[in-house]
């Protein structure tokens, strides 16, 4: 995807409310799937982990196929079938030689419309998910993110782990899975995306309607509420780990906020993938306080979270936190000079351009963009918005994660 040339986006809405978006791609490989506006924050009390569990168990049998046939359907032609769950959405998708678009569409439709959730398969998959959850707890550098989010979003469905907990997972039945799917895997709550080399959009839309036009369920309205503010905290959990793990973070704006591009630029400047990020230079290269330091940002429909992670010897934790605080304070109180800001923008746009050449990531991003924005947001538009960020906007973004507002969690 060249940064100056964005593919056109063709869209269509089926009579049942399902939206379709198609982006041309000159390739013999194509991508298609469903992005569903349903994730772990849509679970009720006692259902923690259900969104992820449903994502696993729709592969375990339908009215037309057993698990083995589902597993092999795309593999036999060299393709892939995959799925993942986040806090706000679930995606079921396939990668395949482009001539097999109908095969992929029909299979995805079968999973969503006709899953049967056989009890024997559910029992077996439950153990797989429990093992997956346990593996995260065995990795402190990953588990700390879950604990931090539990604390910063205390009392909100956004806080709990996507994988759920053992108590709830042990209780899930096929009826629970079916009810969740029927309530939220509905046309008005989904987008079907296609990225590939196809001449006829009419034929594409016809294929999707043939297999997904049968869906017609009313949407049970989301029970989402923006999480309430939680007082900033600074906690240490004694785990007896060899290395200490720390997260410094704060709530930020949502994916729809006008300030989001300033926040994204700030995140990249602080601890993005570049080895020249401010935190990597200051904490690792200059002082040797940590082997790993990185920053990540997640923007949801009504809120967001920026988190800075580093792993270090415990004796360096407070020193590293002070460095982080000093850098953010400087960014929040002193305008960045024009030359440095332009360099930061150029680097970020370049990284996004390189990342957009990953066609799988591009396809998944297109589905999510259409789901939440009703359109495909082009590289050109993103680049323009990043270039428009002013020194004052960057200062305002840094102020939202200032040490006076941020929270800290350390595993020791």
Summarize it.
With 412 residues, this protein is α+β, with helices and mostly antiparallel strands.
CATH fold node name of the largest domain: Cytochrome Bc1 Complex, Chain A, domain 1
CATH second-level architecture of the largest domain: 2-Layer Sandwich
* Mean residue pLDDT: 94
Tell me the β content.
Answer: 15-25%
Share of helical residues:
40-55%
List the strand order in the largest sheet. Answer: 1-2-6-3-5-4
What is the first-to-last residue Cα distance?
Answer: 44 Å
**Helical segment count:** 15
- Under CATH at level 1, the class of the largest domain stands as Alpha Beta
Order of helices and strands: EEEHHEEHHHHHEHEEHHEEHHHHHE
Question: What form results from the Cα inertia axes?
Answer: globular
- Rg calc: 22 Å
Q: So, the CATH homologous superfamily of the largest domain?
A: Metalloenzyme, LuxS/M16 peptidase-like
Model regions low in confidence, pLDDT < 50 over at least 5 residues? none
State the domain count: 2
What is the β-strand count?
Answer: 11
* Classification by helices and strands: alpha+beta
Largest sheet, in brief, is: 6 strands, mixed
């Amino acid at each position: 995807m060249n940064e100056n040339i964005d593919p056109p986006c063709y869209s269509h809405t089926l009579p049942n409310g399902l939206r379709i978006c198609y982006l041309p791609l000159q390739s013999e490989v194509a991508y298609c799937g469903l992005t569903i506006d349903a994730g772990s924050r849509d679970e009720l009390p006692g259902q923690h982990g259900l969104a992820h569990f449903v994502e696993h168990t729709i592969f375990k049998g339908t009215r037309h196929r057993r698990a083995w046939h589902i597993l092999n359907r795309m593999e036999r032609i060299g393709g892939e079938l995959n799925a993942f769950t986040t806090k706000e959405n679930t995606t079921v998708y396939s990668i395949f030689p482009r001539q097999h678009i109908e095969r992929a569409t029909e299979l995805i439709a079968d999973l969503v419309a006709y899953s049967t959730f056989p009890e024997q398969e559910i029992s077996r998959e439950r153990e797989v998910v429990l093992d997956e959850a346990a593996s995260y707890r065995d990795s402190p550098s990953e588990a700390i993110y879950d604990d931090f989010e539990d604390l910063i979003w205390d009392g909100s469905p956004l806080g709990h782990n996507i994988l759920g907990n053992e108590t709830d997972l042990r209780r899930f039945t096929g009826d629970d899975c079916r009810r969740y799917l029927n309530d939220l895997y509905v046309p008005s709550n989904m987008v079907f995306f296609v990225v590939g080399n196809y001449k006829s959009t009419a034929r594409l839309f016809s294929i999707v309607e043939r297999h997904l036009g049968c869906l017609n369920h009313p949407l049970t309205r989301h029970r989402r509420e923006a999480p309430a503010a939680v007082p900033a905290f600074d906690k240490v959990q004694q785990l007896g780990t060899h290395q200490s793990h720390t997260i410094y973070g704060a709530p930020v704006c949502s994916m729809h906020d006008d300030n989001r591009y300033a926040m994204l630029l700030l995140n990249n400047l602080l601890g993005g993938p570049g080895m020249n990020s401010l935190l990597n230079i200051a904490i690792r290269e200059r002082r040797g306080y940590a082997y790993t330091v990185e920053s990540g940002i997640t923007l949801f429909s009504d809120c967001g979270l920026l988190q800075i992670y580093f792993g270090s010897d415990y004796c360096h934790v407070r020193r590293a936190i002070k460095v982080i605080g000093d850098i953010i304070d400087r960014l929040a109180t002193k305008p960045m000079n024009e030359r440095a800001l332009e360099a930061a923008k150029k680097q970020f746009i370049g990284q996004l351009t390189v990342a957009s050449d990953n066609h799988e990531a591009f396809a998944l991003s297109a589905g999510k963009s259409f789901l939440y924005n009703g359109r495909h947001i082009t590289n050109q538009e993103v680049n323009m918005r990043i270039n428009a960020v002013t020194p004052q906007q960057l200062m305002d973004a840094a102020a939202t994660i200032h040490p006076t507002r941020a929270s800290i969690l350390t595993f020791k």
